[in-house]
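Private note to self, pasted from the team thread so I don't lose it. Backbone tokens:
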């Protein structure tokens, strides 16, 4: 087992562990703790990007998601000001529909894995995490989703600013 394999298993285990702790948080009933576990999940995913030699994606993962988007999440969590009795009410409909959603996603994942063609071990990819082909792809083939995402983030940021603004009396 190589060092890269060890780091892959370490980052994968951290991603899965912290991702599950976001949803099922036994340590605290505070949603801020779940948001901090989400930061750890995002950071360990950036480690997986580094192992794939996608250094730009790892940096963007840390800067954009762990930085900017998490600040938006924390603003929303703090503005909601949830009461303790409202935090962890599990309803039967939510539990059943969540379980059905997870089963459907796992079924689609298993079906796509069974139909996918694998690349031989010795074959190399054309590009390994280079920023120039990624930028060219983003601004040619995926320009509309890229711009829609930027508008969505702008609207979310303006919404948080408007919600957090205090009225002057």
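Design output:
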């Amino acid at each position: 087992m190589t060092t890269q394999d060890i780091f892959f298993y370490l980052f994968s285990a951290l991603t899965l562990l912290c991702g599950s702790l976001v949803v099922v948080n036994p340590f605290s009933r505070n949603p801020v703790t779940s948001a901090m576990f989400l930061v750890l999940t995002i950071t360990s995913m950036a480690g997986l990007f580094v192992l794939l030699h996608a250094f730009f994606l790892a940096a963007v993962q840390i800067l954009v998601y762990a930085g900017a988007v998490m600040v938006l999440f924390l603003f929303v969590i703090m503005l909601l000001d949830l009461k303790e009795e409202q935090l962890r009410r599990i309803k039967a409909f939510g539990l059943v529909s969540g379980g059905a959603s997870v089963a459907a996603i796992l079924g689609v994942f298993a079906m796509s894995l069974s139909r996918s063609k694998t690349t031989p071990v010795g074959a190399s990819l054309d590009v390994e995490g280079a920023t120039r082909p990624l930028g060219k792809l983003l601004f040619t083939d995926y320009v509309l989703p890229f711009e829609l995402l930027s508008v969505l983030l702008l609207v979310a940021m303006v919404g948080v600013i408007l919600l957090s603004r205090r009225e002057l009396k």
